[in-house]
Amino acid sequence: MGSLVHVKEAVIVTPAESTPTGVLPLSPLDSQLFLRFTIEYLLVYKPHLPSAALSPRATVTRLKSALAKALVPYYPFAGRVRAKPDGDGGLEVVCRGQGVLFIEAVSGYEVNEFERAPRFVTQWRNFLSVHVADVLKGAPPLVVQLTWLKDGNAVVGVGINHCLCDGIGSAEFLNSFAELASMSQTKFSEFKFKPKPVWDRHLLNPPPPFRPSRNNNNSPSHPEFDRVPDISGFMARFSNEKLVPTSFIFNKTNLDELKKVALSTSKLTESNYTSFEVLSAHIWRSWARALNLPSNQTLKLLFSINVRERVKPSLPSGFYGNAFVLGCAHTTVKDLTGKGLGHAAMLVKRAKERVDNEFVKSVVESVSRSRASPDSVGVLILSQWSRLGLEKINFGMGKPVHVGPVCCDRYCLLLPVFNRTDAVKAMVAVPSTAAARYEHLVRSFCS
């Protein structure tokens, strides 16, 4: 088949200079069970450069050199993540400059094939040929793959161990790496990382000893960690049924219309909603209605909330560890589908407002003490990649014309849209029996 991906070279890239050796402990937030996977980005480029300027050999050389230089301040990415020997459930990074994996490949795909959702969940899997199933088994925490397309364009696939960084941290690293790859040799040697990478994982450790929060009535509740009964065969459906990738772009007009609908179906106390609140509520309701679940099934919308400025004191600029907690909007199918968009947007808004310094401390203690972790029953996970800066990553080939996941799966991603700062693309895979109805509902803005 012309669309296959063929690996030409796979090499280990080590830091360009000597880096500190030793063992770095990860924070309780880094060590959470549900983060033990690889963040996988797919960046598609359509360079407007003469062919000589985009010589494959020269481009590969530039990327390898830039990667090696970026690994000097980001040296934990060149280490290996493992469980702490003391068995307390925490993780650590063994730093000996072991290196990361760089792959060059060629493919029969063309750039316009990325303008729509993939036909199936794993269609683009081989644009990151090495899939790390267990991030604690000694694999490199970072994999970069440059794939040349049939039409001369390019795809960069990136896999980063989520235990080492969150979306914001990974995007800061990738932007620095890309900037290095796109600059002249003179500027390359003088490059200053902005922001300067900061490790400091101890800033998110619980205070010793643990506060007795489980007996404190004033301690925040954590519905994101609560288990709910699966009365609808929810898990079996998502496991057994084929998932169909979907993609829809919401422009400013669409988002303004959703805000109007939300306000018209809200209590009088609500004066405004953000684009995120109305869009996530609309997607959640469309998803729930399309699945046609029993009215008393409890549903949750989980989404990440950056806590860098919510904790006291705030985290330093350049902190690239996991600095987010899960916001959780939850209700029954009956209320979510029957009470209108304003009700769902209000649930999202309230979930965001709950997250303050005390809430973050409580999460840190919960995951440290009892390894609290979210369940999957009735859950839609939504992640806002559109606000990370991924659309700016320029390896000397221009800005990416498509930013998305390597595999479109059951979690929903809000993605940036090329050259449209006021638009957002929502991509999610839904069970095949619900796909057509979901696509119809998500395009409707009247309920």
Automatic annotation (TrEMBL):
Residues 204-224 are annotated as: Disordered. Residues 212-222 have a biased composition (Low complexity). SUPFAM superfamilies: CoA-dependent acyltransferases (SSF52777). The keyword Acyltransferase applies. Keywords: Acyltransferase, Transferase. GO terms for molecular function: acyltransferase activity. Belongs to the plant acyltransferase family. This is Taxadien-5-alpha-ol O-acetyltransferase. It comes from Gossypium anomalum.
